[in-house]
Each structure stands twice: as C-alpha cells, then as structure tokens.
Design a protein that fits this description.
Layout: E1 5-9, H1 13-24, E2 28-32, H2 36-55, H3 61-70, E3 71-74, E4 85-88, H4 94-105, E5 113-116, H5 123-128, E6 136-140, E7 150-155, H6 161-173, E8 177-180, H7 189-205, H8 211-221, H9 228-235, H10 237-251, H11 260-268
Parallel strand pairs: 1-2, 1-4, 2-3, 4-5, 5-6, 7-8
Antiparallel strand pairs: 6-7
Helix pairs in contact: 1-2, 7-9, 7-10, 10-11
C-alpha cells in the first residue's frame, strides 16, 4: 500500500519530532493531542526547529513554508479517519496504549496501519486488544527524532509481512535507518542500554563514586559521548524505571532488578532534565 497521509498521536517531544520529519519528507501530516495547549506547544516547537534550520542555512524559508502547508493539528482522533498510517507516541503505559489503539482501529480505514512508538512494551499484547493485529506494528523512534537515524521496526506475532515492508520503506523515505527485528522486551537498543544505565545507578546508590565520576569514567574509559547517569536524566528516570521494571517482570531474572536509586528519584519527583533535577541538578 502507498502512504500519503500520516497521523501522529501525541504532540510531546517524540510525537512532534515524528511529525516534523514526516512533513519534511513531503508527507501530509496531522498532529493530534488531547488538549489545544499540548498541540500548540508541539507545533510551536516544530516551528522553532525550522526557524533554527533556516538561520543556520540548513533549510530555506521556502522549504519551511512548504512544510507548514503539509502539517495540520487537531484535538480529535477522528482527524485520523483518512490517514494511511497513524503513529502513536503517547504515555508509556500498556493499558492506555491498548485502549487508545483500539479506539483508533475503529476510526481509521480497514487498510490503515497503526504503529506504536513504545520503547519496550509487547507489540503482540497491544495488537491483540485492537481486533486487527495484522495491521499493528512497533515503530520505535529515538530522541531527538530529527537527529537520531534509527527506527526499530517490531512486528507482533500476527503483523503481516506487507505491513512490515511498508513501515521499513516509510522509515527510509523519512530519512531514517530501519532495523527490523523479532519482538522481545526492550527490542535491541533498550534491552542493552537500560541495564547499562541501571548498573550505573546501582554504583551510585552504593556510594562507589558520585554521579559526575561515574559518568566521567565511562566517557573516558569506554569513549561514551555521554555518561550513563546523564543519559538517564535525558531519557527520564521514570522511563528508565518503567522499562527496567518491565524487564524484571517479563524475564524474572535478578539481573533486571531496578536500582533503588531510580525508585528514590522518582518518589522525590526528580525525573531528570524534564523536572530540573535527576542524578544531576539542571536548575543551577
């Protein structure tokens, strides 16, 4: 099937980024969220990114005007009725995702694809709730979407090969590098990355070294561009805890036990960059 109109549900950082790259690739895009304030914030963030690109000579004003003409917003999921694919980028909660994707399944056309940007959750479980599991797929983008090249493409147990092929092709057309894979908790990147961050958080809680020194060691000793605890702050400590807890529940293996320091930070509301404090203080 051919993709001409793309819907994006969720106007936060990830959803706005997905909408931006799709519009830049020449697709008609509708960005939807539950409140006008959320949609406006996401849309304005996209405009800000385009203005920066123009000022740096990476895009022309004519380019930006064209992109704006391709991008619309709404606060009603019925705006997705004529979309060929809808990419969901909402809260990382499987019950909410199942509910929302089931609703979308009743709105979009029979051939439309529903993709979830989940970073770890079961595509098969989400798909089974919708009544159309052959049309459901994982399409995991990375933050910041305009800069990060990877899209993990994850079919559920009943996703059709045609849907996989369409999503792989779409990923390439929006300038990304798709990596198709079999379904597994956390897929590839987070299956490796989150336990790495978790181990750093355990070292922190044990007092082996301060956060600054743990990150310094990994940057200088392993040539990492960013330390694991700064990365946890960027991802969101609550997100890291959710994924690690999901691994722990899925595998039942003690190596996936979440760090206590994750839990303590979340209880304190110190979720990382988005709240101003995490393993590091961003308010200074």
């Amino acid at each position: 099937m051919a993709i001409s109109k793309i819907g994006v549900l969720g106007a936060g950082t990830m959803g706005a980024g997905i909408a931006q790259v799709c519009a830049e690739a020449g697709y008609t895009v509708v960005l939807v969220d539950i409140a006008e304030d959320f949609v406006t914030r996401g849309f304005n963030g996209i405009l800000k990114n385009w203005d920066k690109a123009v000022s740096r000579g990476k895009k022309t004003a004519e380019d930006v005007e064209k992109f704006k003409g391709l991008l619309s917003t709404a606060v009603d999921n019925n705006a997705f009725s004529d979309c060929d694919i809808v990419i969901e980028a909402i809260i990382e909660n499987i019950d909410i995702k199942k509910k929302v994707l089931t609703e979308l399944a009743g709105i979009v056309g029979a051939d439309a694809i529903l993709a979830t940007n989940t970073s770890a959750l079961s595509i098969t479980e989400i798909a089974a709730a919708t009544g159309r599991p052959d049309k459901i797929i994982g399409m995991h983008f990375f933050n910041p979407v305009p800069a990060m090249k990877l899209v993990e493409v994850i079919p559920g147990s009943e996703t059709s090969q045609e849907v996989v092929d369409v999503v792989v092709d779409l990923s390439k057309k929006i300038g990304k590098e798709p990596v198709p894979m079999k379904e597994s908790p956390g897929f590839i990147v987070n299956r490796i990355l989150i336990p790495y961050i978790n181990e750093a958080a355990i070292l922190y809680q044990e007092g082996v070294a301060p956060a600054e020194e743990i990150d310094k060691a990994m940057k200088l000793g392993a040539n990492m561009p960013m330390g694991p605890l700064a990365l946890a702050d960027l991802i969101g400590i609550d997100v890291c805890l959710m994924i690690m807890t999901y691994f722990w529940n899925e595998f039942g293996d003690s190596k996936y036990r979440p760090a206590l320091s994750f839990k303590q930070k979340v209880r304190a509301g110190h979720l990382g960059r988005k709240t101003g404090k995490g393993f590091f203080d961003y308010t200074k």
